[in-house]
Amino acid sequence: MELLFLLLILAILAPFLSPRTPSGRHRNYRSRWTPPPQSNPLAHEQSNASAASQSETDTLSYDKAYQKKWLLTMNEKAFYRQLSSFAAKKNMTVFTKVRLLDLLEPVKNQPKYKTYFYKVQAKHVDFVLCDSKLVARFIIELDDSSHNAPDRTERDQFVDTVLQAVGYKVLRLNAFDEAKIEQSFFQTST
After folding, report:
1. What SS3 class is residue 166?
2. Which of the four pLDDT bands, split at 50, 70 and 90, describes residue 176?
3. Distance, CA of 170 to CA of 184 (rounded, Å)
4. Is the pTM of this model over 0.90?
5. What pLDDT, on a 0 to 100 scale, did the predictor assign at position 106?
6. DSSP state of 141
7. What stretches of the chain show up as alpha helix (H) in DSSP?
8. Phi and psi of 180, rounded to 5°?
9. Are 127 and 94 in contact (CB under 8 A)?
């Protein structure tokens, strides 16, 4: 019985009796990101440099890494206010900065699904007009001078194409124009 009691105490105290480094880890402990020891002295210096950068990554202070950003520019805010007033008359709701993936998605089980997904995943539209059931009906893009750049023009054409392909009406404006919105979205052609 005494022997059993002694073994129990030894099993409880064993973790405290093993040799540890000042960091509290066992001396044989190696973290996952530390490269294995190398005989090349230059490689040792490189591993120290990568360990230092890993250490910096582990100690990033996220509370000081980011800053607030305005959701809308002044121009977009003014446009939003006018568009909201117009939408209220039509019993519609305006949403801003809507992701394309909230409006459409690639057809599932096709060979290039991921390619099509990645093409739209980080893109958004400026304004979406939704009906009383909050179903997206119309898309409005507010084009400022940044839309004149060649890469932005290509991006805009792509966005328009995919939105129109799934049935959305898209209108691009430089400034709020109630007559153009009315004509593009609400007047029936005869």
Report:
1. coil
2. very high
3. 9
4. no
5. 95
6. E
7. 2-17, 41-58, 74-89, 113-120, 150-165, 178-181
8. -65, -40
9. yes
Task: List pLDDT tens digits, range 25-84.
Answer: 555 555 555 555 555 555 555 555 555 556 655 677 888 889 999 999 999 999 999 999
CA 163/CA 119 separation, integer angstroms:
13
| DSSP state letter for 184 | I
For the record, the structure tokens of 134 come out as 């909050």
Give whole-number Cα distances, 170 to 91, 103, 161, in Å. 19, 12, 9
User: What pLDDT score does 14 carry?
Assistant: 65
* Alpha-carbon span 73 to 79, nearest angstrom: 10
Read off the amino acid at residue 147: H
Q: Which residue has the tokens 């609400």?
A: 186
172, with CB counted inside 10 A (0-12, 13-18, 19+), is middle
For the chain, helix, strand, coil in percent to 5 are 50, 15, 35
- Residues belonging to the chain: 190
